[in-house]
Design goal:
10% strand, seven-stranded mixed sheet, single chain, 62% helix, two-stranded antiparallel ribbon, 496 residues, alpha/beta
């Protein structure tokens, strides 16, 4: 037996060491995930900023080159058009002036000739030569004067036109230069504003996108960390629960071995008589929950009962709806006769919790139907303490009278029935059934017990004395509850 115990302890040590190694590997994976996430975020931000800067520089260069070519072509076309217009205008004005002067000279000469012809032919003949010479001279002079005047006027006109053309060309150049400068400045400002706006929009978009990606990455990382922490927490709880289960099995192995070698539990020659060995119609049997998981241990309650029933030393305990049989074991370990009745046979089939150790001290039957616990002489075994920990709310109201009758049949005159009652719905998330079929406040239950012939004595027990329904949880290795809501979890104690 000692070798078997050592093997169990070594197996437990190996399991704990394996779980610690898994926790260490998970922590290393988490550190690597954090480092890899930071590296990916940094490289992605730098790549996006570099690509954006190159796109903006290329866009600005293309727009500036296109604008310079458009303005140069426009300026050249306007200057060429102005030159052609001024040249055509100057040629037209000079041609018109020459034609006017030629017509005037011809008209004056023709008039003079006609006037001279009117004079006598003789005088004309006499003076013809003189006049011809004089006319020739005057005509020559006039021609020279007219030629000189025409040349001077043409030169003046040319100079004026040239000066005007130059001035207009200069003004046009200045206007074009000013216009070109203004347009270039406006274009530069528009381009600068557009580039600034696009750069600002791009920056904002990049900032928003970067923030979003960073937020998503942060959320993803935090979610991964949270999941890892939850996994570690659940894994640790599973390790803790598994450790407790191994400890439970180990101590039961020891106790079973000791009981087989030299019995230390009080003898129990009580037999069960019933026509309803299992509560087949009960929701707790059809959809097992507490019957396959609970196992309450609380020696304080047994000690409280011993104090109340002094000077009687050897007590008899009966636990209705005993589940794992923990409270039956507590009474037996203190030397008392103890029995437990459970409506479902799930724990019995699995030999779960205390069923393997306590043997016939734990039985199955429908407690809402008639049953009898008899001694060897066939008399009914009566009990000083009958308990039902969070069981009454599982019994249908129509079945309560039979349950009260079963309690009366098996309770001593000075004995106590003590029960805790859950005053809330307990819904199965899978099937949707409500395990708590009779939910009421304390006053309702007190009236039911009083009407059934019981005397209320709830004040004899405090909340801290309760094995269930108070601070004590349904599992013997869980931490006690920090507080109790007596409207949700109430209790009652009665005498016959």
């Amino acid at each position: 037996n000692e070798g078997h115990l050592l093997n169990c302890i070594e197996k437990l040590d190996r399991i704990v060491a394996g779980q610690q190694e898994q926790i260490r590997q998970l922590q290393e994976s988490l550190d690597f995930l954090r480092l890899e996430t930071q590296t990916v975020i940094s490289s992605k931000i730098y790549e996006q900023l570099y690509n954006t800067r190159q796109e903006l520089e290329a866009l600005l260069l293309n727009q500036s080159l296109d604008t310079r070519q458009e303005l140069s072509a426009k300026l050249f076309a306007e200057a060429e058009n102005t030159r052609k217009e001024l040249s055509a205008k100057l040629f037209t004005e000079a041609e018109n002036t020459r034609q006017e002067l030629s017509a005037k000279l011809f008209t004056e000469a023709e008039n003079t000739r006609q006037e001279l012809s009117a004079k006598t032919f003789a005088e004309a003949e006499n003076t013809r030569q003189e006049l011809s010479s004089k006319l020739f001279t005057e005509a020559e002079n006039t021609r020279q004067e007219l030629s000189s005047k025409l040349f001077a006027e043409a030169e003046n006109t040319r100079q004026e036109l040239s000066s005007k053309l130059f001035a207009e060309a200069e003004n046009t150049r200045q206007e074009l230069s000013s216009k070109l400068f203004t347009e270039a400045e406006n274009t530069r400002q528009e381009l600068s504003a557009k580039v600034f706006t696009e750069a600002e929009n791009t920056r904002q978009e990049l900032s928003a996108k970067l923030f979003t990606e960073a937020e998503n990455t942060r959320g993803f990382t935090e979610n991964k960390i949270y999941q890892a922490e939850k996994y570690l927490e659940s894994d640790f709880k599973e390790v803790q629960s598994e450790t407790h289960r191994h400890i439970d099995f180990t101590y039961r192995d020891i106790m079973v071995a000791l009981q087989q070698q030299q019995p230390f539990l009080p003898a129990n020659n009580v037999r069960l008589e019933t026509e309803y060995p299992v509560a087949y119609e009960s929701l707790d049997h059809l959809y097992p929950h507490g019957t396959i998981r609970d196992n309450t241990r609380y020696p304080r309650f047994v000690e409280k009962c011993e104090e109340l029933l002094l000077p009687k030393r050897d007590l008899a305990f009966l636990d209705l709806g005993c589940s794992g049989g923990g409270m039956v074991l507590e009474a037996a370990l203190r030397g008392h006769l103890s029995m437990g009745l459970e409506g479902s046979d799930c724990s019995k089939k699995e030999q779960r919790a205390e069923w393997r150790l306590l043997g016939d001290r734990l039985q199955t039957c429908d407690i809402a139907k008639p049953f009898y616990l008899r001694k060897a002489n066939n008399e009914i075994q009566q009990f000083d303490i009958i308990t039902a920990w969070e069981v009454l709310e599982h019994i249908a109201e129509v079945d309560l009278p039979q349950l009260f009758a079963n309690i009366k049949n098996h309770l001593t005159d000075e004995g106590y029935f003590v029960g805790s009652i859950a005053n809330w719905d307990d819904i199965d998330p899978v099937s949707g059934v409500n395990w708590h079929v009779t939910v009421h406040l304390y006053e309702w239950w007190a009236d039911k017990f009083s009407n059934a012939g019981f005397k209320i004595c709830t004040e004899d027990f405090a909340v801290i004395d309760l094995a269930r329904g108070g601070y004590n949880p349904p599992h013997c290795y869980e931490q006690p509850y920090p507080e109790v809501d007596l409207e949700r979890s109430l209790y009652i104690a009665v005498h016959k």
